Predict the structure.
Amino acid sequence: MQTRRYHHGDLRAALLTRAEQTLREKGPGALSLRELARDLGVSHAAPSRHFKDKQALLDALALAGFDRLDETLAASGEPGATFADRLGGFVRAYVDFAVANAQLIDLMYTIKHDPAASEALVKAAQRLGAMAEEVVAEGQRAGEVREGPVDSIAIPVFTTLHGFASFAMSRVLSPEEVASGLDAVIAYMLRGCAP
């Protein structure tokens, strides 16, 4: 595969783009700042101006992944929609993102649990949980979700969602099983949230 050479502009963005491409094609073990520099046609020292080491690059990739996932999920719901529609949109957007970005999702969740995870990564992961809780809280305010502590309702919803997405992105479920099973998973979640 011929790689387009980097000549000017935002080297940090170019490194992240190429790193995500390498992650998708070969996995995190294949990532190397030296290889990225070679791919982009810059000196092997150039990436160190933006990332002190491979871990810093992985952290930045994970953080960018959480940001993109947040944007995707925020765009998944219509203002004023029913809880069932909001939850369905949220679930579908999450599963679609996970399947399309399996290596990135895996990296995001691995790094966020690392004791050395940056504060920015921890906050990014918490934003995701807060978004799920807000969908449930909106449903409660509309009388479409049972009463009780929001987190005690949102945690089973989110863990069910993430479990299904994990099976989908690891190909335990075929694309056909994902497509046909998603409605059943959403219905299961809605029953668990019902007043």
